[in-house]
Design a protein that fits this description.
Length: 119
């Protein structure tokens, strides 16, 4: 079992920045991939970004490319999402995801952190 703890959400004005963090912990686990999803009010949950622990180019939702940057700290089992030039449409609950499988298939969800961008 892997526990995911997200921090860094909050209220910000349009054009502002926030940095989300997600730390993974547990008795025994391996991380192959971590990432972020989000769910806006009245909408389905959607993929935002993901990064493999072995390296490689991260994946991003087209709507956040050039504004959001995902990064990782392998030693801390932590993934970050730097969000710049935030827009009201980025308002959502952001969820951390973790894969403990070599295929990268998602297994675990975090509890979510609210990001609100005011216009």
């Amino acid at each position: 079992q892997v526990q995911l703890v997200e921090t860094g959400g909050g209220l910000v004005q349009t054009g502002g920045s926030l940095r989300l963090s997600c730390a993974a912990s547990g008795p025994t686990f391996i991380t192959y991939r971590m990432g972020w999803y989000r769910q806006a009010p009245g909408k389905e949950r959607e993929f935002v970004a993901a990064i493999r622990w072995s390296g490689g180019t991260p994946d991003y939702l087209d709507a956040v490319k050039g504004r959001f940057t995902i990064s990782r700290d392998n030693a801390k089992n932590t993934v970050y999402l730097q969000m710049n030039s935030l827009k009201p449409e980025d308002t959502a609950v952001y969820y951390c995801r973790h894969s403990s499988r070599p295929s990268g298939e998602w297994v675990y969800w975090g509890q979510g952190t609210q990001v609100t961008v005011s216009s």
